[in-house]
Design brief:
single chain; Upper collar protein gp10 (connector protein) fold; three-stranded antiparallel beta sheet; 10 helices
Length: 314
């Protein structure tokens, strides 16, 4: 019964296979995967009706700021465009387009004030009246592209192990037959064959090998992927496992965590600063804190506790 269900599932929803050279597909996968991780960095409490912490964080992470306002649904946060900069280089107005919420101008100061402007980081989206991107979109794009490139290289490498040579077609018939064969090889069907004698007579192949002088092995490619992921999470302050943890002193661990978790601490400061104005204007009491997985104090206490246990065991 279960096997029949799985067969029907894969028949109606085919696995999302894509070409080994499809870096765009890999980019989309990694961008959304990394963005999903960043959405869990902070935890909000007492969120007003109509608003979700997810909508608020998406604005922070992808556009560098949030400008919530009141609508029929309650207080909402949607992507907006800033304009009307004052003498300090701070935007005073915003506009937005939304398929459900009626469009209107947002004002951040003066008698018409109906919104507050909260920034993602201290960059505040401008440097000396020059607009800059204070979001995490560039960082997400850079890591997603690097991971997609490595994934494509790894896939191409494994396919090359199965093929061993690059086929060369002399006409359209040969080309079509070879393409069909390569699709089977890419999906792991090693029994794919070319049976047409005419095609076989025209078939030529160029030995591409794996390059005896090339040190990029499958293991090194996978290690590069893991290193990039580790680097991404280090920027977010995620503590990585260390096999020599028992030999690290509490002072060393504390210094290491202070370095690793600088980024989430700065983000939290900006969120708290923005929420002060938010709560004052909308008469709410929303609060924000770091997810325990990103909390430096928890890590330091955990490292110290691990060190004490290790000492006791010794």
């Amino acid at each position: 019964m279960m096997q029949e269900f799985l067969d029907n599932l894969f028949e109606t929803r085919k696995p999302p296979l894509y070409s080994v050279s499809s870096v765009p597909a890999g980019f989309r996968y990694w961008f959304l995967k990394l963005l999903n991780c960043m959405l869990s960095m902070l935890e909000y409490e007492n969120v007003p009706e109509g608003m979700t912490s997810r909508d608020l964080e998406l604005c922070f992470l992808l556009q560098g700021y949030a400008s919530p306002f009141e609508a029929e649904e309650g207080i909402v946060s949607v992507p907006t465009s800033l304009y009307g900069y004052n003498a300090k280089g701070t935007p005073t107005k915003a506009v937005f387009g939304n398929p459900i919420i009626p469009s209107k101008r947002l004002y951040f100061e003066g008698e018409k004030k109906n919104s507050v402007l909260m920034y993602n980081v201290q960059l505040h989206n401008n440097i000396f009246f020059t607009q800059v991107d204070g979001s995490f979109r560039p960082m997400l794009c850079r890591y997603a592209r690097r991971l997609a490139d490595i994934e494509s290289t790894e896939s191409a490498y494994t396919v090359k192990l199965r093929m061993g040579s690059a086929p060369v077609a002399g006409d359209d018939a040969v080309n079509a037959s070879i393409k069909n064969w390569i699709r089977k090889v890419m999906r792991g069907d090693l029994e794919g064959t070319i049976a047409d004698d005419a095609v076989l007579n025209s078939f030529r192949s160029v030995d591409v090998g794996l390059g005896s002088g090339n040190k990029e092995t499958l293991m090194s490619i996978q290690a590069a992927r893991d290193k990039i992921l580790e680097q991404f999470f280090r920027e977010l302050g995620v503590k990585t496992s260390n096999a020599k943890k028992a030999q690290i002193t509490e002072e060393e661990s504390s210094a290491d965590e202070q370095l690793l978790l600088m980024s989430p601490s700065i983000i939290l400061q900006e969120r708290q600063k923005g929420l002060e104005e938010f709560n004052d204007f909308f008469k709410t009491d929303m609060t924000v804190r770091l997810n325990p997985l990103f909390n430096r104090e928890n890590f330091i206490e955990g490292s110290a506790e691990d060190g004490r246990k290790s000492s006791e065991e010794i």
